[in-house]
């Protein structure tokens, strides 16, 4: 039974590759922006990033991230429930809450930690 599963999985992957539907990940060797460089040296246009505002390599955000790491380190030692909640995300959330409201939507600040 287990062998049948792996045979089907292998067949499905081969079919996806043959039909051009298998996603090959590229290693990006440049900053995230509209034009990026990948590991083989190719320069390509990046149509699939969430960086549509160009903030991933914005100098002010880079400096703010560096300042945050200098003062608070990199990441949490554990989850918020165990080690507590740092003050910075709360103050950022409070600032986001003061942004103008559009329609009935409140401003929301999301910070994901694992």
Give an account of the 3D structure.
The protein has 114 residues and is mainly α. The chain contains four helices and two strands, in the order αββααα. It has a two-stranded antiparallel ribbon. The radius of gyration is 21 Å and the shape is extended. One of its GO terms (molecular function) is ligase activity. Its EC number is 2.3.1.29. Keywords: Acyltransferase, Ligase, Transferase. This is 2-amino-3-ketobutyrate coenzyme A ligase.
Give keywords.
114 residues, mainly alpha, 2 domains, two-stranded antiparallel sheet, 4 helices, 2 strands, extended
Computed over alpha carbons, the radius of gyration is 21 Å
> Unreliable stretches, pLDDT < 50, 5 or more residues?
none
Which sequence of SSEs, written as H and E, runs from N to C? HEEHHH
Relative helix content: 40-55%
How does the helix and strand content classify structurally?
Answer: mainly alpha
How large is the share of residues in beta strands?
5-15%
Report, as a whole number of angstroms, the end-to-end distance.
Answer: 36 Å
User: How would a textbook summarize the main sheet?
Assistant: 2 strands, antiparallel
Strands, count: 2
Sum up the overall morphology in one term.
Answer: extended
Mean pLDDT: 80
Query: How many structural domains in the coordinates?
Result: 2
Number of H/I helices? 4
